[in-house]
Amino acid sequence: MYKIPKENVVYIVDNMLKHLDPKFSKIIDRALSGKDISVEDAARLFETKNMEITVLNLVADYLRWKSVGDIVTFVINRNINFTNECIVNCPFCAYSKPVGDPESYLLPIDEIVKKAIEAWRKGATEVCIQGAINPKISPEYYLKILREIKKKLPNIHIHAFSPQEIHYFATKAQVSYREALKMLKEAGLDSMPGTAAEILDDEVRKIIAPRKISVKTWVEIIKTAHKLGIPTTSTIMYGHVDTSYHKAKHLNIIREIQKETGGFTEFIPLSFIHYNTRLYKSGVARPGATGLEDLKMYAVSRIFFNNYIRNIQVSWVKLGPKYAQALLNAGTNDFGGTLMEENISRSAGAPWGINMPVKTIVKLIKDAGRIPAQRTTTYEIIKIYD
C-alpha cells in the first residue's frame, strides 16, 4: 500500500525542486498541477540526471496512485505467433525469416485453435494472435482463425493482428481499411495490439523498418479501428537509433489519437532487445536501452499520459521479472500477461523466459507492496488477490 500521504509527496517534491534546474522544476510543477506537459517538456524529462531522476520517479508514482490507486493488474493469456515467414524483414527483428527459408513455418488453423483451447482450459481469458507478413497467407486465413476459435470458444477474447497485418489483409482483399476491419470484427476480432508502431517517425522507420507502413498509415488504421469500436493497445519500441525528441514526439501522436478516439486501453513501452538483430550487429543501433533509460521511459509515459491513458504496462519479457517489479514504483500499474509462449523477444535474445505463472506474478506484485488483480483485456477486474 502507498504509505506517504499525498500532501507529503507534493511537499517533499517541492522542497527538492528548490535545488534543481528551474526548467525541470517548472515541468514537474505543471505535471503535479494536473496540466498536460508538451513534447519539448517530455524530451527534457528524458534527459534527466542525478537527483532529477529521483524526483521524476516519485512524481510518476504519485500520479499513478492518484489515477488508479494501488491495484496492479495482469491478464491470463496466451501468445500465438502463427508464422515467421515474412516479406517485410525489419532489421530490428530476429524472429522473421525470408520467404522460403528452411526455418520458416506457418501453423495450420486447427493447431491455432488447439492452442487457444489449451489456454482456455488453463484459465486464459485472452489469446493474443500475431504473425509475420507471409505472402502465402490469404485474407480467408485470418478470417478463419477468428471464426474457428469463436466457434469453439465463444467467450474468449481475441486480441489479434497489428496495423501492419491489417494493411496486408486489406491490400490482399482489395478493400479499404474500414472494410477490412469490419470483416475481421464480424468474424470475431475483439481488440488489436497497437504494435508495428516502433517509433512513429518516418525518418527513424526508414532505418529500423524500411518496408513497414508509414506513420500516416499506422495512425489511419488505429483511428479507424477505434471508430469501429475495436479497442487497441499502444506501444513504443525504444533503445536503438531513437533520440529523446523522437520518443517525445511518438508519445504526442499517441496522446492526440487518444484525445480524439479514447480507444487505447493501455500504453506499453517495449525496450529494444538487440542481441540477435541485424540492426545491432551492423553497428547501426546501440545495444538497447540502459536501466535508467527504461525507468525514464516508464515515468515520462505516466506523466505525459496522465489525463488520457490510465494504464501503463511494464514488460517483464523485455526487462526481466525483477526490474519489471521495480518499475511498479515508476508509474506502472499493469504487469502484462502470463503469455504461456513467446517467440519474438526470445528470437532477439531476451533471456527472461516465455511463461510467467499467475502465482509468480501475484508474488512479485505483493512483494512490491501493491494489490494484485486479474483483469480482462479491457481492464475489467475479475479477481483481487488478498
Structural overview:
The protein has two domains: 6-67, no CATH class; 70-384, Aldolase class I (TIM Barrel), CATH 3.20.20.70. It is globular, with a radius of gyration of 20 Å. Helix 7 (163-173) packs across helix 8 (177-187). 51% of the residues are buried. It has 17 helices and nine strands. The strands form three sheets. A four-stranded mixed beta sheet has the order 7-1-8-9. The protein has a three-stranded parallel beta sheet with strand order 2-3-4, covered by helices on one side. The protein has a two-stranded parallel sheet with strand order 5-6. The protein starts with 5 loop residues before the first helix and ends with a strand. The chain has helices spanning 6-17, 22-32, 39-45, 51-68, 109-121, 139-152, 163-173, 177-187, 202-208, 215-227, 244-261, 278-281, 291-304, 316-319, 321-326, 344-348, 358-367, and strands at residues 71-75, 77-81, 126-130, 157-160, 232-238, 264-271, 334-337, 371-375, 381-384. It is α/β, with parallel strands linked by helices and 386 residues long.
